[in-house]
Amino acid sequence: MKKLLVLAILVSCFIHQPMNAQVSLSVNIGVQPIWGPVGYDHAEYYYMPDVEAYYYVPKHRFIYFEGNTWVSRPSLPPRYRDYDLYKIHKVVINEPRPYLRHHEYRERYSEYRGRHEQVIIRDCHEPRYCENRNHPEHYRWKEERRQERGHGRRYRDQDRGHQDHQENGDHRR
User: Fold this and answer.
1) For strand 45-48 and strand 91-93, is the pairing parallel, antiparallel, or unpaired?
2) CB atoms within 10 A of CB 48
């Protein structure tokens, strides 16, 4: 269903190209790290006030200041080894390259430094988060979905067989 919705939006965007408004509707729960915060169907960046760094969700890269420039790496540098990504607060930012306006974000979200009450994807049991293959309940969720599809097919086949009997005048149950 979600795929059809996204496809319909994409098609309508191509049909209505003269419009200048940008429509960005995508769900990326499945690619968000399990240490990410719950409540967001889409997240481009996480800003982490405790370490004053960003995480770019689509490419799974940390962006932090090193020397006098912003760098992008697959992990945080050793100076942040005492920080637990599962505990520190993350702020979702869906704007391009937020690190270029770091002074704004640092000021705006400074109150979240040291806060550890945020619920993360790993600890959430909503089915939409279990879709994430790194979620601890992913394989149970996947098996339940497989069984639901299998049961649905079996029931449809049984109904079809019942209808065939009725059409042939065989009304046995």
Assistant:
1) antiparallel
2) 23
- Report H helices in the chain: 2-15, 102-108, 127-130, 138-167
β-partners of residue 91 are 47
Q: pLDDT per residue over 36-77, tens digit each?
A: 999 999 999 999 999 999 999 999 999 999 999 999 999 999
Output the six-digit token pair for 42. 């889409």
- Count of CB atoms within 10 A of residue 129's CB? 22
Q: How far apart are CA 96 and CA 76, in angstroms?
A: 21
The CB density around residue 9, as the number of other CB atoms within 10 Å, is 13
**Residue/partner pairs of 133-136 with CB below 8 Å, 24 or more apart:** 133/30, 134/33, 134/34, 135/34, 136/34
* Alpha helices by DSSP H, 49-124: 102-108
Question: How far is it, in rounded angstroms, from Cα 93 to Cα 72?
Answer: 17
Distance CA 32, CA 41 (A): 9
pLDDT at 150: 79
Q: Token pair for residue 9?
A: 């939006």
Per-residue model confidence as pLDDT tens digits over 148-168 = 887 655 544 454 444 444 444
For 92, counting Cβ atoms within 10 Å of its Cβ (0-12 exposed, 13-18 middle, 19+ buried), the class is middle
